[in-house]
Amino acid sequence: MFVPMADGTILHADLDSFFASVEQRDDPRLRGRPIAVGGGVVLAASYEAKAFGVAGGMGGRQAKELCPDLLFVPGRFDAYTKASKAVFKIFDDTSPLVEGLSIDEAFLDVSGMEKIAGTPAEIAARLRVRVRDKVGLPITVGVARTKFLAKVASAQAKPDGLLVVPVDGELAFLHPLPVEALWGVGKVTAGKLHARGITTVAQVAALPEELLVSLVGKAAGRQLHALANGRDARRVRTGVRRRSIGGQRALGRRGPKTPEALDATLVALVDRIGRRLRAAQRVCRTIILRLRFDDFSRATRSQTLGAPTADTRPILAAARELLAGAMPTIEREGVTLLGLSLTNLEDADAVQLALPLDETKASRLDAAVDDVRDRFGGASITRGVLVGRDPGIAMPLLPD
Fold it and tell me: How many domains does the structure of the chain reveal?
């Protein structure tokens, strides 16, 4: 049985156009101008660019047609990581209950803090000021009784805003919104609902749960019915170990992608992701290759290893096998994004060692290379296949 919380004490804090905002913060010449991070493909767009319809994942040529004055800037993931850590430090100083969702957003639970820190709205306002003053970035915060409503509130308050959803006004806030505001409603589900003339959350809430289940499936139907009626019993969770580590590289739409070029991109991704895996002292069992094609459709392929590992060699071998299997489709459809995820993670010290019980040469080599890169920078050691190639920016799929 769902038991509502007495007060709206959950904050959803979301940095605005994070990558683009970092670039504008660090280069005054970019402030107030439409910019896009990336090149062949837009990785992130400033709000000045979004006003023209420019969006992440859009091809560079299309973005330039929409916004002739658009400025492209190369991505600097080290700068984004540093900014994210500074912001999360403020989150942790604001509340003991912080659940990171990605590199630029988190839930905070401020229940029980009113006597020492003020109301949730006051805490949220102070959080926004601290992030602006200490990190130099705009951040939007939604405050509500549930995680879902807090996240919807922050989306409605963007950019650089604060929105509090009163407990007695939840449905009045939620029901006029389009069905796309509900978690789990993408293009396919929205299309099914629109075909029935259902365009608002209020209309979803009015449907019998059984009808929703028949339209979109059992799990999705039950979830949509609950959310549309303001029910979300999930709590802010801390200390949750991540289930996957991944990254992706936008490739652009211009020209064919040779197998050699794609392999170099894959090698760079494996190097970066493997380094993060080992730094977190985790091992993986499953490798997932993610592809986006010229028509914006997507595909995934996966392979599960015989034993969990953090070694580069078996991970790269599996990734190359997956890429080879996808090459006929890539050659036919074209590819604009290549991503890789390492999943089924376990703690490295919890895995039973395979015989022989000694550290492999490959593991020692990975550790030595990681150490050099940690001390002297990621570009201090480069694979031969990557020499002379643009390393690009490998966007993380999930935060560290």
Answer: 3
The chain-wide mean pLDDT, for the chain, equals: 85
Whether residues 203 and 295 share a domain: the answer is: no
- Separation of CA 333 from chain center: 25
Whether residue 314 is preceded by a cis peptide bond, meaning omega within 30 degrees of 0, is no
What would the mean pLDDT of 276-304 be, rounded to a whole number?
87
Clarify whether residues 109 and 193 are in a common domain: no
- Owning domain of residue 197: 175-228
Q: How far apart are CA 245 and CA 273, in angstroms?
A: 7
- Residues 163 and 205 placed together within one structural domain of the fold: no
pTM of the model: 0.71
* pLDDT tens profile 338-348: 999 998 888 87
Residue of 251, 209, 203, 242 whose CA lies nearest to 226:
209
Active site residues: 105
Residue 1: is its pLDDT beyond 60? no
* 224 occurs within a structural domain: yes
DSSP H/E element including 143: strand 139-144
Alpha helices in the chain (DSSP H): 18-26, 47-50, 60-66, 77-94, 114-117, 120-135, 147-157, 170-174, 187-195, 201-206, 209-216, 218-228, 259-279, 312-333, 361-376
Alpha carbon distance 44, 73 (integer Å):
10
Q: Are residues 119 and 249 in the same domain?
A: no
**Which residue, of 119, 147, 168, is where some domain finishes?**
168
Percent of the chain's residues with pLDDT above 90: 54
Residue 104, marked binder: yes
